């Protein structure tokens, strides 16, 4: 760990470098993302087999935001996704991996983006998702592992929503479980009584929005917790006392957008923070300025900029983190309660 990183932790914020980038570099980012599909021998590619389908979702959505989807190798992507399909109806991280609700959602998102939902065995996916719901309404991530987590509640609801099959699960049960994870501070945790975390809040608000239950929360209290995540550098963190990270430009901002409070964040400084986290040589966006870039932070940085109305990026849907153009009539109309 560098001396600068230790200093960042001590001050609980990132340093904005002198002469940081102030313009988006879309061509660089498209090249950075496309390189992942072309070089199977790339160290990062080989080491990321356990998140291959999620990685495809990050890359495809980045390209869609940059309006460069046509540059992707569709046949290769479809081969990888089909290879990850399992007899139990779900998708694994890649070929030979057990089915997981996260990768199943990502496979559905990718095939929706590629306009190839026809390749999905909808009944089989519905069967897999239904099998993960527990008596208390919560969801496991994979069969036979008691790992209930509000992330998986959202993944289940989003998968079925995108397939127009939401009614196939116990929706009231999932909403009741998510509401058990609602904390006094306005945030949500991973399971009942666990600490509020911005990533889990996104998942819970997304679940409530998709099932039309946003009126169950105190919007102002939740928005306040989220808005307090903005650090003096402009970047957003995931919980109190933690460092800002570009990915929270999505988890925090999208949550605020869904409940109609995006304006509680200072837009100008957040845009500066994301732009300062780009790499002008290799392309891509990092977790914070001067760190190494990767597809995960690239997609959520671009998605955050799109929500902030940054010019030249396709508009994004705050619930599904997919472009509104791609989602068409599946795009979620954000209607915060009065
Ligand atoms: C449709 C985009 C989309 C997502 C699917 C799986 C999922 C739903 C969302 C994940 C939400 C989440 C929990 C995000 C947080 C990711 C992250 C950076 C976790 C690290 O957390 P900590 O607590 O790190 O280790 P910090 O220091 O940031 O608190």
From TrEMBL:
What reaction does this catalyse? geranylgeranyl diphosphate + L-cysteinyl-[protein] = S-geranylgeranyl-L-cysteinyl-[protein] + diphosphate
What Enzyme Commission number does this protein have? 2.5.1.60
A single Pfam family, by name?
Prenyltrans
Alphabetically sorted, this entry's keywords are: Metal-binding, Prenyltransferase, Repeat, Transferase, Zinc
What note does UniProt attach to the cofactor annotation? Binds 1 zinc ion per subunit.
TM region(s), chain numbering: none
Gene Ontology MF terms in the entry: metal ion binding; Rab geranylgeranyltransferase activity
From what superkingdom does this record's organism come?
A: Eukaryota
A GO BP entry? protein localization to membrane
The Swiss-Prot or TrEMBL record lists the needed cofactor(s) as:
Zn(2+)
Prenyltransferase alpha-alpha toroid domain segment(s): 25-322
Entry's Gene Ontology cellular component terms: Rab-protein geranylgeranyltransferase complex
Q: What's this protein's family per the entry?
A: Belongs to the protein prenyltransferase subunit beta family.
Function in brief: Catalyzes the transfer of a geranylgeranyl moiety from geranylgeranyl diphosphate to both cysteines of proteins with the C-terminal sequence -XXCC, -XCXC and -CCXX.
Quaternary structure and interacting proteins, as annotated: Heterodimer of an alpha and a beta subunit.
Q: What is this protein called?
A: Geranylgeranyl transferase type-2 subunit beta
Name the source organism. Answer: Panagrellus redivivus (Microworm)
